[in-house]
Design goal:
The protein is mostly beta strands. The chain has one helix at residues 7-13, and strands spanning 23-25, 28-32, 37-44, 50-56, 61-66, 74-76, 86-89, 95-99, 102-106, 114-116, 124-131, 134-139, 144-147, 155-156, 165-170, 176-180, 184-187, 195-197, 204-210, 216-222, 230-236, 244-248, 254-259, 265-269, 274-277, 285-286, 295-302, 305-310, 315-318, 351-356, 362-367, 371-376. 2% of the residues lie in helices and 44% in strands. The protein is globular, with a radius of gyration of 21 Å.
Length: 377
């Protein structure tokens, strides 16, 4: 049974809650959707706290935070900045976001932010919190930066490459993997030295995720042939000494991967695609997300709690319950402002349409071949 909270109460007390029409689609719940927004990164901290980063149509960046497992998402106040691409947090206090020449960092869970914009010559693409006040950021021309004071200062590390490093994952403060243009780097000494791991990849690497210093997954984007879009998923269990390539001709590219444990991982990409493996990448099954949006980032707490974000400001979550919340007067001719306490309903819908019937009763309409209306009395 899903819970539909009192929408009227939320609209009056929490005016900054994001517009949302949660949709049940198998084990994935849609928690947020705004057509003019693009979410590029997500990071889950624990069962209650997660962050997401993105931009609106004018490329102005914004950061979202949930403190109730995703039932409600709020905008965090940040200085005007454009093109944030990645966000990462490993605890409730330290949060980092990067994009092009900008770095934002917070030591108080997003209440206040430090903004640095002195990396304009080296566009930043990824950031990885490594625990406590340590984090890493990466970008073009072999750039990797490190902070040990929560983002107040950053030092450039010597990587030995000029290739773009567009994806990062940190196992801990010492062990970090970076990937990009046909290259994967690994450090086990906090960035003092980097080893280039031989993979045999000829195409671009889209995402990387590590369980520990030995078990790592990454995505290889295969150049399209005859308009097909394909992805290979690579795994190692010996820290990158040897790799296994698991090829599968998907109808859409996968862009982001989240390793859960030594055998389980999820990957997300085009056309609402999220796939799952429970045998270290040997076989993958398609998850039913109920959407066709372009997922750009996926983050996992465990095998049952994950968030994925992407185009149209979409946030979907695996695990948890549904709650409906909406700000007043943000949809012409429709508002929950006068709705009273809602009843409970079981939902299995895929798409949703708001409206009012001839008796002026508000409802949410789910369509899956048959119609189910949720009356708000």
């Amino acid at each position: 049974m899903f819970r539909i909270h009192s929408v009227a109460l939320q609209c009056l007390i929490f005016p900054i809650l994001l517009s949302a029409y949660p949709i049940r689609a198998q084990d994935w719940v849609s928690q947020h959707m705004v057509e003019s927004e693009l979410l590029t990164g997500v990071s889950v901290v624990d069962a209650e706290v997660a962050y997401a980063v993105g931009e609106v149509s004018n490329r102005l960046a914004y950061i979202l935070k949930t403190m109730d497992g995703g039932s409600a998402w709020t905008y965090l106040k940040i200085d005007s900045v454009s093109n944030l691409q990645s966000i990462s947090a490993k605890d409730r206090l330290h949060v980092y976001a990067v994009g092009y020449g900008n770095i934002l960092s917070s030591k108080d869970g997003g209440a206040t932010w430090i903004k640095l914009n002195n990396f304009q010559d080296y566009p930043l693409a990824s950031v990885a919190a490594a625990g406590g006040a340590t984090a890493y950021a990466s970008g073009s021309a072999g750039l990797i930066l490190k902070t040990v004071d929560g983002g107040a200062t950053w030092s450039r590390l010597v990587t030995g490459t000029v290739k773009g490093l567009y994806h990062l994952c940190a196992v801990d403060a010492k062990t970090v993997f970076a990937s990009g243009t046909n290259i994967i780097l690994k450090t086990v000494d906090g960035g003092a030295t980097w080893d280039s791991l031989i993979t045999g990849v000829e195409s671009g690497i889209e995402g990387i995720s590590a369980v520990n210093r030995d078990t790592v997954y990454f995505l290889e984007r295969i150049s399209p042939v005859n308009s097909t879009q394909e992805t290979a998923i690579w795994t190692t269990t010996d820290g990158g000494k040897t790799w296994n390539r698991h090829y599968r001709g998907y109808s859409s590219w996968l862009y982001s991967i989240a390793a859960v444990n030594g055998t389980t991982a999820y990957a997300a990409g085009f056309y609402g695609s999220i796939v799952k493996t429970t045998d270290l990448g040997k076989t993958w099954t398609e998850e039913k997300t109920g959407t066709k949006i372009w997922f750009q980032s996926i983050s996992a707490l465990d095998a049952n709690t994950l968030f994925a974000v992407g185009s149209s400001g979409a946030i979907v979550k695996k695990g948890g319950s549904v709650s409906i919340h909406r700000t007043p007067d943000d949809s012409p001719g429709f508002t929950f402002r006068n709705a009273g306490k809602a009843r409970e309903f079981g939902l299995d819908g895929r798409t949703l349409r708001p409206g009012a019937d001839s008796e002026n009763r508000y409802f949410l309409e789910f369509r899956t071949g048959s119609v189910r209306r949720l009356l708000l009395k």
